[in-house]
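About this split. The held-out portion is used to measure sequence recovery: a designer receives only the structure tokens and must propose an amino acid at every position. Recovery is the fraction of positions where the proposal matches the reference. Here is one held-out target exactly as it appears in the evaluation file.
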């Protein structure tokens, strides 16, 4: 029971993922004074506006009003055009992200990325824009988009610019991403990479964030001894800055450590300290994460009444639960807690609320996707219009420059054109007649070849179906016939045989009938799709001395059923051929999809054959013909002693 609750708590804490970690300098008071001083005493408007943007970033997490006021100073300034366009767009995106306006934030981040991609002087802002934009897409696209952005964009760019601070930040954020999907060993690997980069730079906020992330990762594993090492490192840094807004986060990590040690009362004391400081610093979102951590501690203590009250408190303050996904998780946990308390009526109520909210989440995602498509469509139309106008402008300029030349050339060529036109007309009439004859002949040849190919494919399929009927008849006669005859003899003999034995024989007959039925039309293929059906087929056809390895990549769920069935039959036929002829020990079945191209490969390590001396049997012909029936190609590669590989490709 305790283990299950702990695993549930780990899932919940990962589900309530916080905003992207803010890395304001640790000496915040000094940093704020420096910004204010530059705003009032800056030598140029550009310097002052840049520091207004930094001020907006400073207040974004704790005071949205002050953040907006600082941002407006820049937007309303006539000198804002002196700033790089991408810089202003980035800080506007940052403000809207912390204000909970995701759609606007994503729009500004996209604008910032487009403007900064060709601005090497502000590569750091581009890296941060990439990361923040990907972070906002997690709800709709999953954590894959964040991993891809960090590995393909942020980390390579940080290395290229030799920016150890940003590189360490990207590594530890990639670690958090793997933590969020429960891959704690992988997360630790990237946190350790961040530590390597941190050794190259003076102690700053990114050190503290990395230590916090390592504490969380070790607590989730759980490994309290390792967590304590980095808890002490974090304390050594943050003690120097008693007014730091990172202190509530430290208490949060400290509470996690005590929870892992099952020292629940000490964990609650740490959380109370964190709550007090978060209230003072107006860190509302972090405050509610601390509340939720208290709920987890109560749950670990099995004090379900306090756990329930804590969740109700979170809902009442409407901060963490203002986001639909978090609210749904809170509803679900209220249902679970009420179930543990035996209040099934309330449990049903909250679970129904969670279910209804799930439907609204899907609707929101659909609307957001539609808006994205509309924006993309409008952008494409605008770009096409711009391209068309530019092309027209170039054409007009070209016409103006060459107008006199064209008139002269046209006058000279007019006479020749008439003669040439007459000759071309005569030649055209002859060529047109010849082309019609050639085209008609070519179409007839193509039609004949197509009919011949379809005839051969159909004949081969019919032969295969006849062979399949014979095999099924043989199966029914040898297995079902014998079993049923045995049962009939047992019943008609009238001896005192145990009824249980007869029932066992009947059950065995039913199982055999189901096996034959599955061979005719696998239920898994109809109900669960191609990937699951192929995996089950490989598992069922594997033998004691015969291993089948199945791999699948990026299969979509909208593959036409006829294509799924043909690929399933091709795989079935290929493995059957390997079993009968190849003398193989291992077979690899791999299927993958790249956009609309579907690829199937069956490879064995058997004795192989020489394609130039072997006449294909019915099995291989069936494979080729099934591939043609779905508009695909089949390539069979083999050599004596080197196994056989069958590659099938088709479009869906």
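Reference sequence for scoring:
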């Amino acid at each position: 029971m305790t283990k299950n609750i702990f695993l549930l708590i780990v899932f919940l804490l990962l589900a309530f993922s916080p905003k992207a970690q803010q890395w304001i300098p640790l000496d915040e008071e000094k940093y704020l004074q420096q910004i204010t001083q530059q705003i009032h005493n800056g030598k140029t408007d550009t310097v002052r506006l840049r520091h207004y943007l930094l001020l907006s970033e400073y207040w974004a997490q704790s005071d949205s009003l002050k953040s907006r006021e600082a941002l407006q100073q820049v937007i309303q300034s006539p000198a804002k055009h002196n700033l790089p366009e991408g810089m202003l767009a980035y800080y506007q995106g940052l403000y809207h992200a912390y204000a909970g306006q995701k759609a606007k934030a994503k729009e500004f981040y996209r604008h910032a990325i487009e403007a900064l991609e060709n601005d090497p002087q502000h590569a750091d802002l581009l890296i941060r824009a990439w990361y923040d934009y990907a972070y906002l897409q997690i709800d709709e696209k999953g954590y894959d988009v964040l991993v891809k952005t960090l590995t393909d964009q942020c980390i390579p760019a940080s290395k290229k610019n030799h920016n150890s601070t940003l590189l360490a930040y990207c590594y530890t954020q990639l670690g958090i991403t793997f933590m969020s999907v429960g891959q704690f060993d992988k997360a630790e690997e990237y946190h350790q990479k961040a530590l390597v980069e941190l050794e190259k730079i003076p102690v700053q906020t990114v050190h503290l964030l990395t230590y916090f992330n390592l504490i969380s990762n070790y607590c989730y594993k759980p490994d309290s001894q390792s967590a304590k090492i980095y808890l002490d490192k974090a304390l050594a840094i943050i003690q120097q800055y008693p007014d730091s807004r990172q202190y509530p986060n430290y208490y949060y990590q400290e509470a996690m450590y005590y929870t892992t040690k099952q020292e629940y009362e000490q964990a609650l004391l740490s959380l109370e300290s964190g709550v007090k400081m978060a209230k003072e610093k107006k860190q509302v979102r972090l405050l509610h994460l601390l509340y939720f951590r208290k709920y987890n501690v109560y749950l670990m203590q099995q004090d379900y009444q306090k756990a329930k009250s804590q969740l109700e408190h979170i809902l009442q303050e409407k901060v963490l639960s203002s986001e639909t996904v978090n609210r749904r998780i809170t509803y679900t946990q209220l249902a679970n807690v009420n179930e543990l308390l035996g209040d099934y009526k309330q449990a049903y109520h909250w679970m129904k609320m969670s279910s209804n909210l799930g439907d609204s989440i899907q609707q929101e995602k659909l609307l957001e996707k539609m808006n994205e498509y509309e924006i993309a469509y409008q952008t494409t139309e605008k770009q096409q219009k711009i391209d068309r106008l530019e092309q027209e402008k170039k054409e007009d300029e070209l016409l103006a420059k060459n107008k006199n030349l064209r008139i002269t050339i046209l006058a000279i060529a007019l006479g020749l054109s008439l003669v040439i036109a007459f000759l071309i007309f005569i030649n055209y009439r002859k060529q047109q007649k010849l082309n019609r004859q050639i085209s008609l002949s070519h179409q007839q040849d193509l039609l004949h070849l197509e009919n011949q190919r379809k005839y051969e494919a159909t004949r081969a399929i019919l032969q295969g179906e006849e062979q399949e009927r014979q095999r099924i008849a043989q199966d029914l006669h040898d297995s079902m016939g014998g079993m049923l005859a045995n049962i009939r003899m047992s019943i008609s003999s009238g001896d005192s045989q145990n009824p249980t034995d007869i029932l066992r024989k009947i059950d065995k007959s039913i199982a055999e009938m189901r096996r034959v039925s599955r061979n005719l039309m696998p239920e898994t293929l109809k109900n669960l799709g191609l990937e699951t059906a192929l995996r089950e087929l490989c598992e069922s056809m594997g033998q004691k001395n015969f291993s089948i390895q199945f791999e699948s990549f990026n299969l979509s769920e909208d593959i036409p059923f006829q294509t799924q069935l043909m690929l399933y039959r091709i795989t079935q036929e290929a493995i059957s051929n390997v079993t009968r002829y190849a003398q193989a020990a291992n077979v690899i079945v791999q299927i993958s999809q790249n956009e609309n191209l579907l690829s199937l490969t069956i490879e064995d390590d058997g004795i192989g054959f020489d394609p130039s001396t072997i006449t294909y049997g019915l099995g291989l012909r069936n494979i080729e013909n099934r591939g043609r029936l779905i508009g695909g190609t089949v390539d069979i590669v083999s050599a004596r002693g080197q196994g056989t590989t069958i590659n099938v490709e088709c479009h869906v």
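Annotator remark: DSSP finds 24 helices and five strands in the chain.
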